[in-house]
Amino acid sequence: MAKELLKGNEAFAEAAIRYGLEAYFGYPITPQSEALEHLARRMLEENRVFIQAESELGAINMVYGAACCGVRTMTSTSGPGFSLMEEGLSYIAGSDVPAVVVNMQRGGPGLGNIQPSQSDYFLMVKSAGHGDFHPIVLAPASVQEIIDMMGLAFDLAEKYRTLVLIAGDGSLGQMMESAELPPMQPFPYPRPEWAVSGAVGREPHIITSLDLSPEGLERMNLNLQAKLAEIQKHEIRWKEYETEDAEVLLVAYGTTGRICLSVMREARKQGLKVGLFRPQTLWPFPSARLNELAGQVRVMLAAEMNAGQMVEDVRLAVAGKVPVHFYGRLGGIVPLADEILAEVKKL
Amino acid sequence: MRHEDIIISGFGGQGALFAGQLLAYAGLADGLHVSWIPSYGPEMRGGTANCTVIVSEEEIGAPIIRHPSAAIALNLPSMDKYEPLVKPGGVLVVNTTLVPRASERTDIRVVALPASDIATELGNVRMANLVALGALLKATGIVNVEAVMAQLELHLSERQRKWLEPNKAALLKGAEFVQ
Predict the structure, then answer these.
(1) Domains A4-198+223-234 and A239-346 share a fold
(2) Whole-angstrom Cα distance, residue A295 to residue A119?
């Protein structure tokens, strides 16, 4: 496939189709609505399922139902919609079924605005619903990366029977960039053995998050924790730029991560030894590697489009070895490279 | 290294976003990295519209920049906003039909041309975006005018097809303006 000029929202939607998305359920919200529009047309062309639900509550519970049937399924939304989906997300996690949710974050809290933001970090990484669980959270920084991460998201969701979130933001959704889509994958794919598919000639498969006995529910929770421990062991991803001789380490994800790439280049031009660490998974967080780097750099600066959320995980990771500073912009303002460079120079 | 950070700005309907897309398509066809990002706030009809296009030989970092190396101001509010921000040594293309003042900058190259009047003479005032784009291409050399004309063939909608040749002429007229 050749490179094309693709808009983030349309790119992840088309990538999802090519990676075998069988059923999409969603509700429009800026800044991700182009995804819904693209899927409304393309899913019908491919003879697959597209439903615009009555609300985000409806959409996530349709995803839950489809996932129980072993169908490759997803939804996409932005902050206010994600808040509404949390109950369903918890049921999905409690039921050990695979599902993918894209959150193109916008300014909050409340109705907020439609500009880019990263203020749903806590919501996605720390508390995607009631009960003890973590979804896998992927953090793409470019149109190409969100395309590639759609395939990864379905693979991880199905491998671990778990919830996978993609943490984008308004600018990633709205921007066009040169990128390459994957070829169409074989479809339909085989349904998993555990799926609910009509118990003809066999015992019924029961998928539920309910267990009224504390002993039973503790057992279920321990199994869930064992699965999460496996994910932490095998699925941590990040990218490093010029960390070998870095004295100052920038830590940033998604759009802020790529802005920090510009900061790093300009700093290097000016003779400052600056490196960049860009987490590609926010959960599991690349803590061990950050801790190693803390033994080598003088200081870290975490940059985010929020009031300081991921920075807490950075501080936990480095465990006091080096100072970790923070720079953030709020309300949908995208920090500019020269603002962050000015912060670097103060360190 | 070939690299330009470009902002194209005007009021809604002047085609700032489309001109930016054409430029991005042409950069892509030339094997360069490109990004295009629009202002997408809750805009009203006749309000401002702008986009940032980055065309580069290296992987693009920040898609949103403060200081463009080249800018097009299709109307006065765009001139007021971006004239002070163009990097020293950069290029500013000004649509003098709608910008009734000269640039005060002496450290940048200012290309002042009556883009809307030229477009009107060619048959449609709405082609002012491509007149200005033609001038920007010539002044920066980031991609050549022919490359953009080729993308126009591919991306002009069916409904607008009858404007293909006039649009090409608009690009050339703008380019000719730059010596």
Answers:
(1) yes
(2) 29
Q: Report how many domains make up chain B.
A: 1
CA terminus-to-terminus distance, chain A: 45
Q: How far is A98 from chain B (nearest CA, A)?
A: 33
Could you tell me the sign of the dihedral formed by the alpha carbons of A125, A337, A323, A325, in that order? Answer: negative
**Contact yes or no for B64 and A3 at CB 8 A:** no
Interface check for A179 against chain B (CB to CB < 8 A): the answer is no
Going by C-alpha positions, the residue among A329, A346, A96, A125 that lies closest to residue A210 is A96
HEC readout, B54-97: EEECCCCCCCCCCCCCEEEECCHHHHHHHHHHCCCCCEEEEECC
Distance from CA of B12 to the nearest CA of A (A): 17
* Interface contact flag, A337 B25, Cβ < 8 Å: no
CA angle A265, A342, A167 (to 5 degrees): 65
Q: What are B's interface residues with A at a Cβ cutoff of 8 A?
A: 21, 24-25, 28, 33-38, 40-42, 59-67
- The ipTM of this complex is 0.93
Report pLDDT digits (tens) over A2-51.
899 999 999 999 999 999 999 999 999 999 999 999 999 999 999 999 99
Domain boundaries, chain A: 4-198+223-234, 239-346
- Mark residue A94 as left, alpha or beta (left: phi above 0; alpha: psi -120 to 50; beta: remaining): alpha
CATH of the domain at B117: 3.40.920.10
Query: Token digits for A222?
Result: 């321990």
What is the side-by-side order of every strand in the sheet holding A49-52?
A49-52, A23-26, A73-77, A99-105, A163-169, A136-138, A281-283
- SS3 state at B51: strand
**Residue of chain A nearest B33, judged by CA positions:** A178
Q: How far is A108 from chain B (nearest CA, A)?
A: 15
Interface residue A342 vs chain B (CB under 8 A): no
With an 8 Å Cβ cutoff, are A338 and B66 in contact?
yes
Q: Which domain holds residue B40?
A: 3-176
* Residue of chain B nearest A174, judged by CA positions: B37
- A255 in Cβ contact with A169 (< 8 Å): yes
At B66-114, the pLDDT tens digits run 999 999 999 999 999 999 999 999 999 999 999 999 999 999 999 999 9
Q: Which 8-state DSSP code applies to residue A125?
A: I
Domain A239-346 has CATH 3.40.50.920: yes
The CATH class of A4-198+223-234 is alpha beta
A68-122 pLDDT per residue, tens: 999 999 999 999 999 999 999 999 999 999 999 999 999 999 999 999 999 999 9
Among the partner residues A5, A337, A338, nearest to B24 by beta-carbon distance: A5
Are B87 and B68 spatial neighbours (Cβ–Cβ below 8 Å)? yes
Nearest chain A alpha carbon to B23:
A5
Q: Contact B77/B43 with Cβ under 8 angstroms?
A: no
